[in-house]
Specification:
The complex is a heterodimer of chains A (about 525) and B (about 60). Chain A has three domains: about 100 residues, Alpha-Beta Plaits (2-Layer Sandwich); about 140 residues, 3-Layer(aba) Sandwich (Rossmann fold), CATH 3.40.50; about 190 residues, 3-Layer(aba) Sandwich (Rossmann fold). In chain A, α13 packs parallel to α18 and α15 packs parallel to α16. By secondary structure, chain A is of the alpha/beta class. Chain B is α+β, with helices and mostly antiparallel strands and about 60 residues long. Chain B has one domain. A two-stranded parallel ribbon of chain B has the order 1-2. In chain B, β1, α2 and β2 form a beta-alpha-beta unit. Classes of the chains: A alpha/beta (about 525), B alpha+beta (about 60). At the A-B interface, α1, α4, β4, α5 and β8 of A face α1, β1, α2 and β2 of B.
Chain lengths: ~525, ~60
């Protein structure tokens, strides 16, 4: 195998386009490894780590595109790779191109769009802060999807935004719905009376989807970015969003979603909640229940529970913690018994492969009560993957974390990463596979189909050893999403996957099965 | 424009970066402009720093 590189200077393409191109080129016969990217610091480091960089790379700038490939010259030439690259790129550019004028800068875009009021920014993180600053200076609200933005920049930009009374949602903000318009990775939901401020993307998606399924709708959904409630940022955007929803006449009830905030930030939020004239439902996933109640707000035990309580309070109905299932208990027991009866005695392990970080986090919090769950985002340091006893045990992965997305798209955008984990992490000792299937704008066109294909492949593999596996999924999506909730459920069920109506219920069923496996099967219903 | 004023307005969005976000907005009938974005000054740090200084002088 020999390394070949090719450089196109001053040719800029977005990261997702290039990551998907890399994947297409990887499929060519004779290609051992290939990387296509803009020559940003991150991409150059990745190329070096993969042994795909040569001396010319030191002269590149972030405006230069590189193709680096290790190839078997008997099977393929670099010229053929470049031709394939150009062909894929042309196809993609053609499919995305439109007749519209594309101004070359933010300032010229603002001039060409009278009344512009919002800027979405998803450029590489190192360039994002300057663009945000320009947008705020021009008086525009910002949604900042980019990650790798220094926390000092986030603080400075949010302080400026708050001074000007502008939203600065992010960095690393994946989900918002403003005036009924889903932005970036959000689901299609109906308009309504519930406002949400969320510091976690898929957590916010799950709550908004569940509210829609329960027949209510959303007034506004404001994202803050995951670091907003940390001490350094002080909850600047959560506070602004919360106060804006209190002042919004269309919002009758407010839901706040975040991982547990820094104590000082939580206190700030509780003070606003105490004086809120509107009911407030808080899911600080695993947060301080007593403190939330003391602030006059309603605490929750899961994302689904937050949606249920929000809807019940809005309708003036009584509420309690939702700890069960939508299906009758005897039906669930039947599913548990049937599932366990399919497994051999040496099949004992869980493989939870999540594309949504907050959904993975929720799974670990619910499962961690009864089971030792090892993860790349562990609840406790000792539960890190590296500490798996002899490499065996229950595993729950957030496949959207940086360690799995270097040089490749997020698994919600492209299912390839999870497909590979199905192949590498599910084996003859796996008893249960738990997955999320996230629909919506920005997500892959058929995530359910990708999961179903992987499950069929695994079942074929295990069948050779006389084994089967239990697969449990939840679909975070609505009937209005382009991927279609019902179609996605049908696709999964056709592959023998048990589909539950929420992440929390899918996790609870997993818990029941894992617990029953310890006891052994008594009867099969 | 305050956040609550934004809530009363039609969204008009400038998109910098992933074109799929622009396409999704267009498919919903949202008024949006895609910027043909490239890193300023070729992404060179020293040039970016100079540009930043020039802009600050201009603003003052």
């Amino acid at each position: 195998m020999t390394l070949h590189t090719s450089v196109k200077r001053n040719a800029y393409y977005d990261s997702v386009t290039l990551m998907l191109l890399s994947r297409e080129l990887q499929k060519l016969e004779g290609v051992e490894d290939v990387l296509v990217g803009m020559a940003t610091g991150l991409n150059l480091d990745l190329a070096k780590d993969l042994g795909l960089a040569d001396n010319e790379f030191d002269t590149l700038t972030p405006n230069d595109l590189f193709i680096a490939a290790k190839i078997d010259e008997a099977l393929i030439s670099m010229k053929a790779i470049e031709d394939a690259f150009n062909e894929y790129l042309n196809k993609r550019v053609e499919s995305e191109s439109d007749e519209d004028y594309q101004p070359p800068s933010l300032s010229s875009a603002i001039q060409s769009l009278p009344g512009a009021n919002m800027v979405l920014i998803s450029v590489p993180g190192q360039f994002a802060a300057a663009e945000v600053e320009d947008a705020l200076d021009a008086g525009l609200h910002v949604m900042l999807f980019s990650d790798n933005v220094p926390v000092e920049d986030e603080l400075r930009l949010k302080q400026k935004a708050v001074e000007k009374g502008l939203l600065m949602m992010g960095p690393d903000c994946g989900t918002a719905i403003i005036n009924g318009i889903p932005l970036c990775l959000a689901n299609a939901v109906r308009l309504g009376k519930i406002g949400v401020v969320g510091a976690s993307g898929t957590g916010t998606q799950e709550v908004t989807v569940q509210i829609h399924k329960l027949g209510e709708g959303l007034s506004q959904v404001i994202g803050t970015g995951g670091r907003d409630l940390k001490e350094q940022i002080g909850g600047l955007m959560m506070t602004l969003g919360f106060e804006s929803l209190i002042a919004d006449p269309e919002t009758e009830l407010i839901v706040l979603i975040s991982k547990p905030p820094a104590p000082s930030v939580a206190e700030k939020i509780y003070q606003i909640a105490k004086s809120s004239p509107k009911p407030v439902v808080i899911d600080f996933i695993g947060g301080d229940r007593a403190a939330i109640e003391a602030a006059g707000a309603i605490p929750c035990i899961s994302l689904e529970d937050a949606a249920q309580k929000a809807v019940k309070v809005l309708r003036g109905q009584e509420y309690e913690d939702f700890t069960g299932f939508s299906l009758p208990e005897d039906h669930i027991n039947c599913i548990v018994d049937t599932s366990v009866s399919k497994l051999k005695s040496d099949q004992t392990e869980l493989r939870a492969l999540f594309t949504g970080g907050t959904l993975a986090d929720e799974a670990m919090k619910l499962l961690g009560v009864h089971h030792n769950i090892y993860s790349n985002i562990p609840l406790l340091p000792e539960m890190a993957i590296a500490n798996l006893p002899e490499g065996r045990g229950h595993i729950c992965l957030d496949l959207g974390e940086d360690e799995f997305t270097r040089g490749r798209p997020h698994p919600m955008i492209d299912p390839q990463t999870r497909t590979e984990f199905f192949q590498s992490h599910v084996d003859e000792k796996t008893a249960v596979i738990l997955v999320d299937v996230v629909l919506g704008f920005g997500s892959y066109k058929d995530p359910a189909g990708a999961v179903a294909d992987s499950v069929r492949e695994i079942r074929q593999r295990l069948a050779k050893q006389g084994k089967d596996v239990v697969v449990i999924a939840s679909v975070c999506g609505t009937d209005l999403d382009s991927q279609d909730l019902n179609k996605s459920i049908a696709t999964l069920e056709a592959a023998g996957i048990i589909v539950l109506p929420s992440n929390a219920q899918a996790v609870r069923l997993t818990d029941r099965i894992l617990q029953r496996m310890k006891k052994g099967v008594l009867d099969v219903c | 424009m305050s956040v609550n004023d934004l809530f009363k307005q039609e969204l008009k969005i400038v998109n910098l970066g992933l074109k799929s976000f622009h396409s999704d907005l267009k498919s919903q009938g949202v008024t949006t402009v895609q910027v043909n974005w490239k890193p300023k000054a070729g992404g060179k740090k020293n040039m970016l720093s100079l540009l930043g200084k020039i802009n600050k002088v201009k603003q003052s």
